[in-house]
């Protein structure tokens, strides 16, 4: 295998320069530490009496070993390579290996996060400051003062027309009963959606925005459970609100069936876009699974949830305790 170029390294790549002096038939074997108890795989045959450049992945720690026809394995080592770093490994004529040395300092791949925080944090600070001014009636008073001044000027100088001025009394606007929203749940749902979009767009090529291939989990593995949790909490809140408003259970169940069918059809349609091969069609996608578990959880809630009246007086910690105590046993499973 020919030596690779150490210039223009891509994301999560480093370059290892292996120098072999008076050594023949030497091969580099490697395996990621993530692959538990896996055998090392042959990466490249080293050039005799020269340097071999090898591009390596920096996501996981790597086990490295140099072997020859005599099956020497004195060089087995575990090393952590960093992005865009260049490293050197020397092999002497008596098949002794030196320590891996850093030739070019790797880049700090967290700097884009630092720049993003430097942009986001001041923006949030300005937004919170404007909200504070509005809550303290500083900003609204300015607008009210301007509108009142315009009205005074208009009263003093007239309307610029010979027509009589008709003053219409301003009636108070009717107050609409807005639906109660849980801000924390909406915020968590928004964070999950933003994370999902960012991951689907590549996640900035960061490894922790990719799904774990073997052991453990990454941030990308939390998106689906978070959506399931938000959906479960929303089911309990929505169904309890409908039952408190004296909605019949059969109508509630009809809404559950309709929403499940909508989720299922949306998932099938999205999975079939630009795909016309039934052998590669994915019938159980993400939305289909969400539709399935939504139907089961919402149906159980519709059948077993106890009807409760609205509480007009009990608006304290006892109401929250009663909400927890009235949760059905299967909700804890």
Automatic annotation (TrEMBL):
GO MF term set: transferase activity
Keyword Zinc set for record: no
Pfam families according to UniProt: HGSNAT_cat
InterPro entries in alphabetical order: HGSNAT_cat (IPR012429)
Domain Heparan-alpha-glucosaminide N-acetyltransferase catalytic positions: 181-314
Keywords: Membrane, Transferase, Transmembrane, Transmembrane helix
Keyword Transmembrane helix: yes
Residues annotated as transmembrane: 109-130, 187-208, 214-236, 256-274, 286-305
Domain of life: Eukaryota
Protein name (database record): Heparan-alpha-glucosaminide N-acetyltransferase
Organism name: Sipha flava (yellow sugarcane aphid)
């Amino acid at each position: 295998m020919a030596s690779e170029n150490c210039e223009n390294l891509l994301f999560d790549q480093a370059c290892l320069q292996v120098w072999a002096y008076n050594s023949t038939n030497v091969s580099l074997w490697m395996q990621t530490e993530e692959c538990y108890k896996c055998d090392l795989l042959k990466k490249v045959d080293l050039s005799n009496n020269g340097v071999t450049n090898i591009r390596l992945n920096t996501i996981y720690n790597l086990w490295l070993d140099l072997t020859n026809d005599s099956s020497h394995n004195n060089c087995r080592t575990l090393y952590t390579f960093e992005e865009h770093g260049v490293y050197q490994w020397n092999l002497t004529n008596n098949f002794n290996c030196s320590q891996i040395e850093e030739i070019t300092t790797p880049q700090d791949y967290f700097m884009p996060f630092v720049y993003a925080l430097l942009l986001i944090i001041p923006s949030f600070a300005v937004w919170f400051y404007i909200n504070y001014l509005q809550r303290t009636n500083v900003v609204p008073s300015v607008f009210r003062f301007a509108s009142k001044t315009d009205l005074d000027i208009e009263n003093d100088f007239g309307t610029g027309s010979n027509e009589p001025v008709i003053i219409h009394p301003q009636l108070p606007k009717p107050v609409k009963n807005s639906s109660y929203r849980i801000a924390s749940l909406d915020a968590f749902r928004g964070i999950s959606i933003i994370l999902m979009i960012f991951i689907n767009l590549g996640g900035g090529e960061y490894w922790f925005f990719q799904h774990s291939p073997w052991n453990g989990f990454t941030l990308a593995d939390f998106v689906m459970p978070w959506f399931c949790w938000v959906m479960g909490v929303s089911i309990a809140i929505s169904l309890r609100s409908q039952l408190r408003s004296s909605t019949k259970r059969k109508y509630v169940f009809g809404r559950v069936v309709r929403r499940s069918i909508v989720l299922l059809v949306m998932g099938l349609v999205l999975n079939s876009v630009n795909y016309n091969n039934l052998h590669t069609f994915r019938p159980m996608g993400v939305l289909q699974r969400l539709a399935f578990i939504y139907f089961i959880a919402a149906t159980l809630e519709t059948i077993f949830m106890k009807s409760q009246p609205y509480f007009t007086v009990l608006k304290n910690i006892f109401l929250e305790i009663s909400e927890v105590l009235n949760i059905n046993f299967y909700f804890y499973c």
